[in-house]
Each structure stands twice: as C-alpha cells, then as structure tokens.
Specification:
8 helices; 281 residues; disordered C terminus; two-stranded antiparallel sheet
C-alpha cells in the first residue's frame, strides 16, 4: 500500500501553453534526428557487454554496469551529428543566440573532453547551456546503444538504487505501470527503466513515509510531484495505468514543466545536474 501523503495545489495551467507546443515540436525533431543517427550508429557500433558474473557482482554491490569513462567514442561522427543538431536548433529558434561550435570546440580533443564531462554529469564552464544541451543530445544515442547491450547481460529487476543500474545517472521521471501501479524510474541519459519502491526517495533512499509526500495539480490526476523532506528533492511521476500507448519520457518531461515550477516554488530541487541546462538546479 502506498502510504505517502498527497495534497492538491492550484497552479495547473489552463490548456497547453504555446511554449509547451513549441518545445514539444522541437523535441520531436530532436528525437527523429536521434533515431536516424542511432540507426546509422548501430551498423558500426558493436559494444561488448560485461561477463555475466562480473555484471552480477557489480549489480549486487550497487555499481552501475557501464563504465562511461571507458566508452569508445567516434568523435568525428559525433561532432558531425552535433552540427546537425545545432542547425536544427537554429532553424527552430532563429532568435536564440547562435552556437558557434568551431569557436567553443576548436578541435576533437576539446570535444571529447566536453563529452566526458557531461558523461560524468559535471557542469562545463564556460560553455553556454544550449551547447551543453546539444552535446548531451549528441551523447544520448551512443549511450542508448551501450545501455541496450548491457541490459542483455543481466536483469535489473533486483536493483534497489535510485540511480540508473546501467550508466549510474539520475532518473528523469517516474512512471506508474500495471494494475498494481508499480513505480518505474527512467534514466535521464540512457533511457533504461527499472522498478523502484514507491515509498522510497530515489535520491537519498529515505523510506520514512512520514517524510515522503506528493502534490497533484488541479485537473491533472495523471501527473504528480513526489517530494522528500529529508533531502528536499523531487521527481515527477506520470501514471500510465489509464493508457496503453507508449510515451516518450523526454516529451513527458517537457509537457509537465509546470510541475517543476510548483516544486521549485515550494523549495524543492530536482536532480543535482540537469543535462538540459548543464547547471546545478
């Protein structure tokens, strides 16, 4: 039984704001480009997974399967894809500050350094947030291929940590699935999903139900903000029990931005590092 405390707040926007529609369109284009690039990558990128016994030991001891520092990266290919994403961003938002890639990333070594920093979830200074976002999106299809390979090695069903069992990143969102409303977390970088207790904070592992609660905005019982009073962090959770359709975690994250506003106005923070802004939140 879920013993969390629920409250309702009145900050739900009426209808879908224009900025949501614009951002959704933009991210749909990003996702389409990612899928196309990922298809091409899968022809040449053939990562090897861990030996099953090593994978079991790592999972048992709370270590993610993938060592992101050891990932082989096709830097020229990724830089070309970065240019594709930069052009897409500029076409979609011509009034935004143009990202001068060649000035900020003068050579492949600088580019790889930035990629490795994002993989370690470190802020990149003095790189603008938009470029950090584009670098993150450049990494995403590569990491998804590596993660899919590792998931073939061992089941993540027994994983009880709030960070990703494959790459170690924080969750982007939570989903409630199945008749019992089991909670699944979705990785913010490699898209791995894993089951996680509904009465436990994914960030500090607090399981005292008296200090865990959630807010539901008016007219939207499908989405909630789950908060922890111990670490003052939150995660958005979407109830998928009423739909049989597949959903995109990235698009759901955009469509629920009003919940971020509610949570932050109440003094809660999300994941310490945001791949969308490249900054501490």
């Amino acid at each position: 039984m879920n013993s969390e405390t629920s409250t309702t707040t009145n900050v739900q926007p009426q209808g879908e704001p224009a900025i949501y529609r614009e951002l959704t369109k933009f991210f749909e284009l990003i996702i389409a480009e990612k899928n196309a690039y990922k298809q091409e990558l899968e022809k040449s990128l053939k990562p090897s997974s861990l030996e099953p016994e090593l994978a079991r030991v790592k999972m048992t001891n709370g270590f993610p399967l993938l060592d992101k520092d050891q990932m082989a990266l096709d830097i020229p290919s990724m830089k070309k894809y970065l240019h594709t994403l930069s052009a897409l961003a500029h076409r979609h938002a011509p009034n935004a500050a143009e990202v001068t890639i060649e000035k900020l990333i003068p050579d492949d070594t600088s580019f790889e350094t930035m990629i490795r920093a994002v993989l370690r979830e470190e802020a990149i200074e003095p790189v603008p947030g938009l470029l950090t976002f584009l670098i993150t999106e450049t990494i995403r299809p590569v990491l998804e291929i590596y993660a899919a390979c590792e998931r073939e090695t061992i089941s993540t069903h027994q994983w009880e940590k709030g960070y990703c069992p494959v790459c170690g990143s924080d969750p982007l969102l939570g989903f409630l699935r199945g008749e019992e409303g089991r909670r699944y977390l979705v990785c913010s970088l490699c898209a791995t999903e894993w089951q996680f207790s509904r009465i436990k904070c994914p960030f500090c592992e607090n399981s005292d139900f008296q200090t865990l609660s959630y807010f539901v905005a008016d007219n939207d019982q499908r989405c909630r903000i789950e908060v922890c009073e111990e670490c003052k962090r939150y995660i958005k959770t979407v109830d998928l029990r009423a739909t049989a359709q597949e959903v995109s975690p990235i698009l759901e994250n955009i469509r629920t931005m009003h919940l971020d506003i509610i949570a932050q106005e109440k003094g809660y923070t999300s994941s310490g590092f945001s791949p969308y802004t490249g900054s501490e939140s």
